[in-house]
């Protein structure tokens, strides 16, 4: 597994930074990210995100743009994608156990693209445990899921088959960093009055409602598509 991302360097969010690799891995990752195939996959996933959740997509895009504007040393993985991080799982038989990606934005979406050569009717299924769904997930398919909120996994593939994956996501801490004025929590909370702390607590309590407000209804998606077709 190889990852390229903008992330918080420490658990307590010292400062966002580029993920560190050894010299050899950094060279390999840089070459992979420049491959047209991964650029196309990254752009397709981001465009799908924009189509199905335009308000949430904008939230991601504005956050990443703010990070990059504040710190020119941060590197964007793909010019056509607004996720901060990407992971390539090489396999050759990639599957995941039941989990949630708790470090990602709680109401955010990540993209998962299946790659390889396997029979999707026999293995490699995507399992969404909370929804009680088992979905055939062929190579070349991309799905968008709220990976921090929904438990998910993959089923193993058969002997002699190959499966890899390419994922994109953004850590929740990056959004908090921007929201707190591009500074550590310890600095952000300095000098805050009791009224300030009460307001912040109320905003945090309403964060779930904020996240849901960034989701789009089918009617909104259809209206946006019709408007785009008439431009």
Automatic annotation (TrEMBL):
It comes from the Eukaryota. Residues 1-24 are annotated as: Disordered. This is Uncharacterized protein. The lineage of its organism: Eukaryota, Fungi, Dikarya, Basidiomycota, Agaricomycotina.
């Amino acid at each position: 597994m190889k990852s390229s991302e903008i992330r918080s360097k420490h658990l307590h969010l010292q400062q966002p930074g580029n993920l560190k690799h050894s010299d050899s891995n950094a060279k390999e990752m840089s070459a992979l990210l420049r491959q047209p195939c991964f650029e196309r996959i990254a752009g397709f996933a981001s465009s799908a995100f924009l189509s199905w959740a335009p308000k949430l997509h904008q939230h991601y895009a504005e956050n990443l743009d703010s990070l990059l504007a504040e710190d020119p040393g941060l590197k964007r993985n793909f010019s056509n994608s607004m996720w901060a991080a990407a992971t390539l799982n090489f396999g050759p038989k990639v599957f995941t156990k039941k989990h949630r990606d708790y470090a990602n934005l709680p109401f955010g979406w990540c993209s998962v693209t299946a790659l390889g050569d396997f029979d999707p009717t026999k293995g490699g299924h995507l399992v969404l445990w909370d929804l009680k769904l088992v979905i055939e997930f062929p190579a070349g398919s991309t799905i968008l899921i709220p990976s921090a909120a929904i438990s998910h996994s993959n089923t193993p593939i058969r002997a002699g088959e190959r499966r890899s994956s390419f994922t994109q996501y953004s850590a929740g801490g990056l959004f908090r960093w921007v929201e707190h004025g591009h500074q550590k929590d310890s600095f952000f909370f300095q000098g805050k009055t009791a009224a300030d702390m009460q307001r912040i607590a109320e905003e945090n309590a309403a964060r779930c409602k904020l996240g849901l407000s960034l989701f789009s209804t089918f009617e909104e998606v259809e209206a946006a598509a019709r408007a785009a077709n008439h431009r």
